[in-house]
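Today's session is about reading a structure prediction critically. Students often jump straight to the picture, but the first step is always the sequence itself: look for stretches that repeat, for charged clusters, for runs of hydrophobic residues. Only then move on to the predicted structure, which in these notes is written as discrete structure tokens rather than atom positions. Here is the chain we will use throughout the hour.
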Amino acid sequence: MAKLNLEETAKYVNENIVSFHTDRLECLKKLSLKNVLKKKNPYLFKAKNINLASELVSSLLDAYLSSSEEELFGNFLEDLALFIASRTCGAKKSSAEGIDFEFVRKDVHYLVSVKSGPNWGNSSQQRKLEENFKKAVKVLKQSKHTVNAQPVLGTCYGKTKSSFLMGYWKYCGQNFWFFISKERGLYTDIIEPLGHRAREHNEDFKKEKERIINLFTVEFSKEFCSDGNIDWKKLVQFNSGNLDIKI
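Below is the predicted structure for this chain, in token form.
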């Protein structure tokens, strides 16, 4: 196993974190008010007693962006894990369904699937991963003689203890980064370069977000307000009105 070059890793993070900021800004620019309204729960915002159009729009936008940013940053962390494993273990991107990368260490062929955090997916998605692991192991053993194949689920953050379930190891947080690097402190070493030009990027994002909130507030007021009040009935009809069954 090769020694990880921490300076090279920091350089990779510095250069590639820009893509995360670019993607989140592009995601914001592509949004439409009605698309956001269709995907968020209007009952929740009514229950929170939100009565200002600007406050509702801002809350909707925050809820929508939070989930999209989690996905975008998860993709970045998964790419970072592959970069590190490629340097330390000679890992290669896998062509197998549900497997992110593979490498061989001490005669064990590891099949690694990476998730950003421990609370990923529902039960059916987790069962699908188990099936993908079994299928990948079967294919590997058929193509190579007496291969010791070991699936691994790695999550980039979290304190869940390592465990062996359904034929695969689950490594979380520090354990996962150690598994692919043999560097005990890697999970903290990578945090500093993540802030590279963060203030600059976040200022650009903040300005665009404020512009979008202003535009959406005007549009929302025209479409879903009456006499200065939010027309919740009209909003719910837009979000959920779809009666097409007969009883």
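Discussion point for the tutorial: The beta strands are 92-93, 101-105, 108-115, 148-155, 163-165, 168-172, 225-226, 229-230.
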